[in-house]
Amino acid sequence: MQSTSTPVTLLGLGAMGRALAAALISGGHRVTVWNRTPGRDDELVAAGAVSAPAPADAIAGPGPIVAVLLGHASVHETLDPVADKLRGRQLINLTSTAPDEARELAEWAAAHGIDYLDGGIMAVPAMIGQPGSSVLYSGSRSVIDEHRDMLELFGVADYFGEDPGLASLYDFALLSAMYVMFTGFAHGAAMVASAGVSARSFAARATPWIQAMATGLPGHAAFIDSGDYTAETQSLDFNKSALDAITRASHDAGVPTTIIGQVKALIDGQVADGHGPESFARIFEGLRAR
Ligand code: FVH
């Protein structure tokens, strides 16, 4: 466990970096900040942060280094030139990276004697430190164990084990679910827009509907995890008939069937393979990695 005030360096003062730095300062930590473009740290400095002119200056002091940059390449651009000075240090990378990029950074870190923890932020900047914010971590167990209290200032700190790519995999899987949900909303909004209905009005209906449907996810998960898709209701045959009609209605409304057509194709594939009486959850089998 750490003491209540940890010296910490934060690299990257975009919208998210500034929110994280503010949370650290409010939590009583001694924060040194650096950003590629100068002038983004005025409020943080007024709140007590120390501004460093270059990454080498920022990492000169003790404590963990938190990177909140744009993507994988920007982490290398920032840290490669100072890698030799990072031996024995702890790096917490909250920059969004794909799983293979997180693993590559962990290998790079290990080669330079750096203890590496990867993180995926499940929040927007305004949510940092608020209920509903969480950060998914994987990689170095000792880093999360030592700094958990500090990291909880950002939101709930969930640790997924030592594979440095696993937090990112969860992060991107959750984002996939989110993007498909929002895209589904856009498809529905386009359908009702053909009848002059506003997106706002549609959202008022869609919000409680999607919330109610989300409660069915554990039921879908039970089918998937057991591999037994025997179903009394909501069979693929039933859903095929619904998707045929929805696709037709979308087409009739002048809405491209690109999105809904993919759902129909997944159902059609399972029905063609003889699984019509089984649960809709079986579409998972058409998506899982071979
Ligand atoms: N903002 C959000 O809602 C999401 C929520 C989920 C997680 N993401 C990820 O967090 C990382 C940072 O996001 P951000 O919101 O702070 O992004 P920006 O405001 O665009 O700031 C980007 C910072 O990265 C710096 N930067 C970009 N390229 C380089 C580079 N080659 N070398 C050094 N620094 C670089 C940039 O600096 P500057 O443009 O001000 O000089 C900003 O500090 C990100 O991975 C999200 O996916 C946020």
TrEMBL record:
GO molecular function, one term: NADP binding
Keywords: Oxidoreductase, Signal
Highest taxon of source: Bacteria
Signal peptide: 1-21
InterPro entries according to UniProt: 6PGD_dom2 (IPR013328), 6PGDH_NADP-bd (IPR006115), HIBADH-related (IPR015815), HIBADH-related_NP60_sf (IPR051265), NAD(P)-bd_dom_sf (IPR036291), RedAm-like_C (IPR048666)
One Pfam assignment: RedAm-like_C
SUPFAM superfamilies (UniProt xref): NAD(P)-binding Rossmann-fold domains (SSF51735)
Residue ranges occupied by any 6-phosphogluconate dehydrogenase NADP-binding domain in the UniProt entry: 8-155
Any one annotated GO CC term: chromatin
UniProt keyword Oxidoreductase, yes or no: yes
Parts forming coiled coils: none
UniProt-listed GO biological process terms: transcription elongation-coupled chromatin remodeling
Residues in NADPH-dependent reductive aminase-like C-terminal domain copies: 163-288
Family: Belongs to the HIBADH-related family.
Database matches in PANTHER family: CYTOKINE-LIKE NUCLEAR FACTOR N-PAC (PTHR43580:SF2), OXIDOREDUCTASE GLYR1-RELATED (PTHR43580)
Name of the protein described by the UniProt record: 3-hydroxyisobutyrate dehydrogenase-like beta-hydroxyacid dehydrogenase
